[in-house]
């Protein structure tokens, strides 16, 4: 969630409670997770552990990476509260510069952190058959107060899809979501697999009710 230049700002946001302490993982990630191979997972820019704690509860061993020490502290605290502290290893690092290991992860997740320039590194970090899940804010012609004010940190139409085409795309959408706080959010979501060949296996997809 934070990079090195903004880590102090994010430390303050996490400490003050202005960012949710216990954010929900994406409904798409929740729906597809049972079909994704077990193993080690990386939650890049974990924030307060949006994906990391969920994946640890699902049985993954998780590397939770962020530049914010406060976010990582909260992630560890939440993991302890859920009884999965032994499944999460926090990594204090700048996601823009971090040297990802190759062929290590069954699953890499990135939520609301703009990192298209690291896609090739994230793909190389997957084992064969491993999955990449990315969700992020979209540029929209409608007002979308939720998310960054600068379009540099939002995906253009189909930008996330094009970035994922080096993998085998399993799911993609671009949607607008109305939120209870009236902060409308435009979001792109991608699930892709490091797989090759004309015949592949496919995970069981979410039902229509799970896609929101």
Automatic annotation (TrEMBL):
GO terms for molecular function: 2-polyprenyl-6-hydroxyphenol methylase activity; 3-demethylubiquinol 3-O-methyltransferase activity. Residues 1-27, 193-212 are annotated as: Disordered. It comes from Halorubrum tibetense. This is Class I SAM-dependent methyltransferase. The keyword tRNA processing does not apply. Its EC number is 2.1.1.222, 2.1.1.64. It comes from the Archaea. It is an enzyme of class 2 (transferase). Residues 42-117 form the Methyltransferase domain. Keywords: Methyltransferase, S-adenosyl-L-methionine, Transferase.
């Amino acid at each position: 969630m934070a990079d090195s230049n903004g880590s102090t700002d994010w430390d303050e946001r996490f400490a003050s409670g202005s960012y949710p302490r216990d954010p929900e993982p994406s409904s798409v990630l929740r729906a597809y997770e049972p079909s994704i191979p077990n193993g080690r997972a990386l939650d890049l820019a974990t924030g307060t552990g949006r994906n990391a704690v969920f994946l640890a509860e699902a049985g993954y061993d998780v590397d939770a990476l962020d530049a914010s020490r406060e976010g990582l502290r909260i992630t560890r605290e939440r993991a302890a509260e859920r009884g999965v502290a032994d499944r999460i290893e926090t990594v204090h690092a700048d996601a823009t510069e971090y040297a990802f290991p190759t062929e290590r992860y069954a699953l890499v997740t990135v939520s609301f952190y703009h990192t298209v320039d690291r896609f090739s590194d994230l793909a190389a970090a997957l084992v064969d058959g491993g999955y990449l899940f990315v969700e992020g804010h979209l540029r929209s012609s409608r007002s979308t107060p939720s998310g960054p004010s600068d379009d540099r940190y939002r995906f253009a139409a189909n930008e996330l899809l094009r970035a994922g085409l080096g993998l085998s795309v399993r799911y993609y959408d671009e949607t607008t979501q109305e939120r209870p706080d009236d902060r409308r959010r435009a979001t792109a979501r991608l699930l892709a697999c490091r797989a090759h060949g004309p015949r592949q296996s496919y995970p069981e997809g979410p039902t229509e009710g799970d896609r929101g």
